Amino acid sequence: MTALTLSTAGAATLRADVVVVGVAKSGKTLVVAPGAEAVDTAFEGRLAAVLETLGASGSEGEATKLPAPAGVKAPVVLAVGLGTAPEDGEAYGSEVLRRAAGTATRTLTGVKKAAFALPITAPEDAAAIGEGALLGAYVYTAFQDTTDAKKPLGEVALLGAKPRDKAYKAAAERALAVAEEMNRARDLVNMPPNELTPATFAAATQVAGKEHGLKVQVLDEKALAKGGYGGILGVGNGSVNPPRLVRVAYTHPKAEKTLALVGKGITYDSGGISLKPAGHNETMKCDMAGAAAVLSTVVAAARLGLEVNVTGWLALAENMPSGSATRPGDVLNMYSGKTVEVLNTDAEGRLVLADALTKASEEHPDAIVDVATLTGAMVLALGDRTFGIMANDDDYRTAIHEIAEEVGEQSWPMPLPADLRKTMDSPSADMANMGVRMGGGLVAGLFLQEFVGEGIPWAHLDIAGPAFHEGAPYGYTPKGGTGSAVRTLVKLAERTAAGEL
Ligand code: BES
Ligand code: MN
Ligand code: ZN
Q: Cytosol aminopeptidase domain spans which residues (predicted)?
C-alpha cells in the first residue's frame, strides 16, 4: 500500500526519487503552477520553456519526465498537466488536482518516493492530491505473477501541506481513509467471480468488521428461507453458491441520525434463464459494485469516527441458470408480502434490493440510499462515467447530486415518472419485475420505490456506467473496478452527521 506523508521541506530540498510539478496553459504560454517555484528557480526560471521544447502543452492527462538540474535533490522532475490556469487569485479545482496526482502516480510505478509540489492553498487541495495519488497508485495483481513487475509508488510526500496544522493533518487522514476504502471496493469488484461468491463476500465483511469494530450479521440461505426473503432466494436459487443478506453496522454513541445504505451484490450476473448473450457477460463480475461501495462507506465512517450511525445492507446472490433457477413466469413471494412475477430473470438486481429495502425500512432509519449497477438503460442514457440519481424527495436528490459534484463524482438527477409504474402491472401477481424498455432505468427505480417504508427519504444511485471502467486508464481511474459512489456516500454520511441533511 502506498504511504502518504506531509512534509515541510522545499520542493528542491526534499530527498525523493522524483519531484512532481504542475504545468498549465495561460493563454498561449505554458506556466509552472504554484508550489514548484524552487524547482523552477533551479532551472533558472526556464522550466516552462524546457517543457515546451519537449512538447508539453499543459493539457490534463499529460505527463512529461525530465532530468532535474543541480540544486534539486530529486534526480527526476515529472510535470503533470493541469489544463487552463485559473484566473489570478483563484485556486485550481479539486478534481483537476485529484486527476493530475493520479496521472502522476500511474506514471511512477517502480519509484520509491515522490515529492508532490502541486498547488495547495487549503486543506481541501491537499486532500484532493492525496486521494488522487493513492487512487492512481492502485493495481490489482492478486492473480498474477508479480516477481518481475514494477511495484506501485511507495511513498507520496505532499509538500506545501502544513504537517503541524490540525486541518491539514485531518485532511490527509481523511484522504487516506477514503482512498483506501475506494481501493477496497475496487479489489472486491476486480476479484474474479469464482473467488468472490456471496459466502466469501460475507466472510470478507466479517473480517473487515472485526478490524474496524463493526457489528456484522449474516443471514444464510436457511435463515433467508425462514424469514421469507423470496426476492433474494429467487435470484440465488439457480446457483450452487447460495445467497446471503449481510447487515454491517457502524454506530457512534453520540449519533443523532441513522443512515441506511443498501447495496446490490450480484457476485456474477449471467442473466439467469434469460441468459445474457456473449458480449454482455464478460464484465458481469462488477454487478456487486453497489454492495462493495456500501461496505467501504461503512468502514470509512468507522475509520473517520463520524457522529452518525451508518447501517449497510449487502444483498448478495449469484444469478445463474440451472434446473433450480427461477423461470420467466415464476411468481416470487417477496419479504414485504408483495408478489412479483418474474418476466425476465436478468432484471434480478431489483429483486434482491427490494427485500433489502423492506428489511432496512423496518429499522426506521432517517434516510435510505441504495447503490446498484442496475440497468443498461442508465448507461445508454448517461454514458459510462456518470451515475443516475432517483429519489422520492426532490431536495434529497438535489443534495446528493451537489455532494457528488463536490467530491468529484459525475452524476445526474433522473425522474421517477408515475405513468411508467403501470407498465409493471402483472396479470398473475401484484407486479412484474419488468415494464417498458424505454426509460428502463426509471422503471427499475419505480420498482424499488414500492419497497421503501412509508415516510422515509430514499435515493437510488444507478452506477451501472461508472462502476467498471473498460477503456484506457485516465487520471486516478484504472481499468476495472473504480470505487464509484464511495466518495459521495462518505460525504453524505458526514453531512448527515453534521445535521445538514
Ligand atoms: N447488471 C445488469 C445491468 C448492467 C448493465 C450493469 C451493464 C452494468 C453494465 C442488470 O441486472 C440487467 O441485466 N438489467 C437489465 C434489465 C432488463 C432485463 C429489464 C438491462 O438493463 O438490460
Ligand atoms: Mn441482470
Ligand atoms: Zn445485474
A: 344-351
How far apart, in whole angstroms, are the C-alpha atoms of residue 120 and residue 443? 45
Q: Identify residue 385 by its one-letter amino acid code.
A: R
Which are the contacts of 287, defined by CB distance < 8 A and separation ≥ 6?
264, 266, 267, 268, 269, 319, 349, 373
State the pTM of this model: 0.98
Residues 83/98, Cβ–Cβ less than 8 Å = no
Q: How many whole angstroms separate alpha carbon 283 and alpha carbon 269? A: 9
Q: Which domains does the chain have, with CATH numbers?
A: 3-159 (3.40.220.10), 182-497 (3.40.630.10)
pLDDT tens figures, 114-137: 999 999 999 999 999 999 999 999
Query: pLDDT above 70 covers what percent of the chain?
Result: 100
- H or E element that contains 431: strand 431-432
> What is the rounded distance in angstroms from the CA atom of residue 322 to the CA atom of residue 343?
17
DSSP assignment, residue 419? Answer: G
What pLDDT, in 10s, does the model give residues 213-266?
Answer: 999 999 999 999 999 999 999 999 999 999 999 999 999 999 999 999 999 999
Please tell me the residue having the least CA distance from ligand 1 atom 13. Answer: 346
Which ligand 1 atom sits closest to the C-alpha of 266? 1
Contact predicate 444/347, CB 8 Å: yes
Q: Tell me the pLDDT tens digit for each residue of 287-313.
A: 999 999 999 999 999 999 999 999 999
25 forms bridges with which residues in the sheet? 30, 84
Cα(241) to centroid of ligand 1, in Å?
A: 21
Catalytic residues: 276, 350
How far is 180 from 248, CA to CA, in rounded Å? 18
Quote the ligand 2 centre to 347 CA distance (angstroms).
5
CA atoms within 13 A on the CB side of 64: 25
pLDDT at residue 193 tops 90: yes
> Of 346, 384, 438, which is best to mutate to test ligand 1, by the most ligand atoms within 8 angstroms of its C-beta?
346
Query: How far apart are the CA of 381 and the centre of ligand 1, in A?
Result: 13
- Nearest atom within ligand 1 for CA of residue 375: 21
